[in-house]
């Protein structure tokens, strides 16, 4: 564990987690679980999206998926219970970091945050500060703090996988509305990935109209790309929509995630038209979705072609391509790491180039869209690497990542610690 302050992602809204031990208010509003019940849910294999017998009653570290809120955060809160010399973090819920200040040498010195319930403002000094507010709020915090931006790349270079979706009407029951959200992925290195995704009827209906390609047969907004063998490109309307919804469990949907280029034109800045909120000027997200690079467009078209072909080979009677507008389910690289100081904000260790002792550990630190896959595990792995760097560089610690046996967040020692701490 490193001793650092960070505005961090978590289960509890907008917390600040601090390991300096000087923050007084630790108010995690975590529900308690009835651990006295029989059949304790200690087997992680039972807590997948669809297979869990008691997912709602499981200790928080055994909940489905491995988001930070159910993995790193419960581990950090109970570190003293499962790790030798481990120190638990202090987690302050409902706190919103509003400013990072620097010292006379331009190094990060303190974080100021505001408590949502009371409006109280607190400032704490730290030896190192980690921003992890996500791809929109991290650059916003940087810009609202007036931190340096000499090359103009703070907030820029947003990648979003230029998503699309291709849906087949299959001659068999797909269980689309009943099964897990997603159970497989096909990677095409250098191009992107395809992911079959189950959808509830409501989501299906909404996404059927979520198109940038207009109404099939009437107009297409001049979008690049083609049908690649699909019967329709664009919004489903009238009889087509009725047919799709009447057969919602015969639909097989494949989401398309493109390995998209980092382009400076896409990114986050401060809005000059919306009024500031209680945390200062609000962010403005800009994506020139009809002006992507030729490589990005080519990658997406290739993936759509692969999805159509896959569905046809599986026997699809009809295939629809939605041609989605920006649907920012994955976002990355707005505070990107890079080898060159000309087009990056962070150096190769995720430390800010122009503000020492300031690190970024969320998706915005990624150098690019990492090729198209779901990004969270990569970001968590990068955050682990960054934590080790901070520990060595600013706390005189020793490397541990490739020397110690990693402890998984679903390890029984963590489960026991979480249960004993009453975390649900
Ligand atoms: C519907 C949906 C489904 C997804 N499914 C997957 C998936 O299956 N697999 C996958 O890998 N990815 C998935 N993603 C993407 C995944 O959610 C992101 O990759 C991940 O959450 C990004 O983590 P982050 O730390 O960058 O940002 P976030 O998770 O957004 O964390 C930022 C945190 O900082 C807090 N915060 C913001 N500003 C401040 C501030 N000023 N002070 C204090 N706190 C602040 C926020 O409240 C938030 O908790 C999905 C996304 C969506 C929307």
Number of domains: 2
Amount of beta strand: 15-25%
Kindly report the CATH topology of the largest domain.
Answer: FAD/NAD(P)-binding domain
The major β-sheet equals: 6 strands, mixed
Strand order of the largest sheet: 9-10-12-8-15-11
The chain-level mean pLDDT equals 87
Number of strands: 16
CATH top level of the largest domain? Alpha Beta
CATH architecture of the largest domain: 3-Layer(bba) Sandwich
Radius of gyration: 23 Å
Distance between the termini: 23 Å
Overall structural class, as computed from helix and strand content, comes to alpha+beta
User: What's the helix-strand series?
Assistant: EEHHEEEEEHEEEHEHEEEHEEHH
Helix share bin: 10-25%
Shape: globular
What does this protein look like?
The chain is an alpha+beta fold. It folds into 2 domains: 7-156 and 333-420, FAD/NAD(P)-binding domain; 164-261 and 289-321, no CATH class. The chain has 8 helices and 16 strands. It has helices at 72-77, 79-82, 134-144, 201-208, 238-246, 294-313, 376-395, 412-420; strands spanning 5-7, 16-18, 90-92, 95-102, 108-115, 121-125, 129-131, 164-169, 186-188, 192-196, 232-233, 251-258, 267-270, 283-286, 318-321, 358-360. The protein has a 6-stranded mixed β-sheet, covered by helices on one side. Strands 3-2-1-7-16 form a 5-stranded mixed β-sheet, with no helix packed on it. A hairpin with a 3-residue loop joins β9 (186-188) and β10 (192-196). It is globular and about 65 Å long. The two termini are 23 Å apart. Mean pLDDT is 87; it is low at 1-53. The structure holds flavin-adenine dinucleotide. Flavin-adenine dinucleotide binds at residues 7, 9-10, 13-14, 16, 96-97, 132-135, 137, 141, 329-330, 362-363, 374-376, 379. Flavin-adenine dinucleotide is lined by residues 7, 9-10, 13-14, 16, 96-97, 132-135, 137, 141, 329-330, 362-363, 374-376, 379.
